[in-house]
Write the structure tokens for this entry.
Amino acid sequence: MSNIESQTIAYVRDTMIPEQAPPLTEAGAIKWLRENLFSGWFNTVLTLLSLAVIWWSLAAIGPWLVNMVWNAGSLSECRRILDGTEGACFAVINDRWHQLLFGFYPSHLYWRPVLALVLLFVALAPILFTGLPRKMLIFSAIYPFLGYHLLWGGSIWLPISALLGFVAGAVAFLVVRKVNGLAAIFAAVLAPVFWWLFLAGPFDSAMSSVLPLGLEFVRSDRFGGFLISLVIGVTGISLSLPLGILLALGRQSDMVFVKSVCVIFIEFIRGVPLITLLFTASLLLNYFLPPGTSFDLILRVIIMVTLFAAAYMAEVVRGGLAALPKGQYEAADALGLDYWKAQRLIIMPQALKISIPGIVNTFIGLFKDTTLVVFIGLLDPIGLSNAIRASTDWQGIYWELFIFIGALFFIFCFGISRYSMYLERKLKTDHR
Amino acid sequence: MKKSVFVGAFAATALVAGMAQAQTLESIQDRGELNCGVSTGLAGFSAPDANGVWQGFDVAVCRAVAAAVLDDAMAVNFVPTTGQTRFSALASGEVDMLARNTTWTFTRDIDLNLTFVGVNYYDGQGFMVNRDLGVSSATELDGATVCIQTGTTTELNLADFFRSNGMEYEPVPIETNAEAQQQYLAGACDVYTTDVSGLAATRASFESPDAHVILPEVISKEPLGPVVRDGDKQWEGIVRWTLFALIAAEELGITSANVAEMAQGTDMPEVNRLLGTEGEFGAMLGLDSDWAVRAISAAGNYGEIFAANIGDQTPIGLARGLNALWTQGGLQYAMPFR
């Protein structure tokens, strides 16, 4: 063949031309710029405008951040160090970080809230990640009592006797179940109540006198700063989800009484601003209780925040329930599952999966709403920033405190939101 | 755990329900601690320091009372209260007294069933402007934009003042003092108005305080003082006369430095009566005879407390003005210890 070709064609190339680089405008950074930033006159104008805005904000904030001062005893000392130049005075964080994080918690006991936070992540891990050994769930169940004891201290027998109430409930359930299923549920509810009302107190005081174990007691009014946000937020989040699910189921119930109680509760709470509920907790309850009784303010706030979040949670979960095709309910019935089994095995896993974004939304909202407690005089980070600003050393400082507080909240809220995206991807079973 | 606290609260409810409210002194002594309502943070008057210890002019009143009643100036549990929660915290018994820059007005005294025991600071509403504006009197402020905290008496005073002088103004509503500083410095308003003590404290925190002037006009009376509940004469007396003891101490030349020495007995009868070497004044209050000695030793007399917290040597830099003793042209006047 080649012979023929050599006769008919004057020149034949017998090697490939080496690959050439694409034109300058069609490769690398320039291509990206052309396609993404300057693809038309309109986008070019927008790009230039954005660049101007970025330049302008950097020019405004840049020097302020670059000249930051970390070591000074007061704002005036900061200004002396800066000597007329513009600069952030983060020395206030250096001076007061422990207050912003722990409030007035005794400083030699800081290890307790820190340990409680670390253990909180240990306790959450098996709930959040299914790959971990299931035995860790035992620790998760104990954690609420352990966390309480670490934060508040006092006699160790108080949380133990409270925990024993649940044990009593479980034992009663297992014993009575052999006789009658419905009676077992009543027994499981009544046994702990009976324990807490009549036996927990004597047990607590008896054990305390025999074996006085426990950590140093820290009063609730020593709590403050980010600690208080976390205590209210974490308790509210972990209690509002189960409560919300129960309320959502109650709202769909056929039993008129259960249904109307749930509807009234949900609609009442959703119709009232959180700040009103907080004022009720802090002010109105005081008038109902006789003078001298102090029903712990943080506990009152936690209850109110939990009820508030539960009502929202109920509606989010109801949205998930409504999104399930009716066939799923009928399939559960066809399999002969009773109500609770159907909920647990078929309905809830699907409904909750659908509601993940809404649930996480409520969690994040609840966590950020904890800053509203500043209006009832609790010193959360925002309240403490006011208190810090009221000291003569730091009067007049503003952005530095808010940047620090904002960063703390961002870390937690961003973490929650990333986890929810991970969970959604993991649970994605459809083929969209 | 939650339930046991709940149950405990109700058990305590049943126990305490029968007791009247009149036993404030006894319940404080049983508790070993004075519950004192203070502001959540007001420069010079009440603020926690880096160690979480409350400091300030109002705080010092609480400490003096605690020293008189409990022999320990640090035995105070400070309850931060906001403008909304302060009176119900007092009325419901959550705090024993308020020392929280609260203006003594008719309705609060009569309608709210509270008792103002005296005045520890005479304040009034004033104006601060930038020196560059060239304004030297509040009557020249026609057409100005004014930063004003919403929902306070200052807002009403401002409206009254401008109307009675036939002037116009444009309010810039703000929520807190810190926000007001930012707005004022950013030029969102020409004038910032609040109590003169607040203006002075705010100005002191500016980068160049001299660039701003506080105008001479004071357009309202704001007598600030400690408050107790109605219905317990004994407790009211203790707080009132502790405050008077601090003021009288300044008048009589008793300071924290020489109080121990003067408590040995002097040739001035009023000093002797105050410090308990003559008469039975402590016993009449339900306290021992050294009560005033302890109150004065806690943080000094009125003048010392003023100088240490808000006086002209501090960054706040307030002059005594109306708060000088009556003998020096001011209004601070303690009723006689007789």
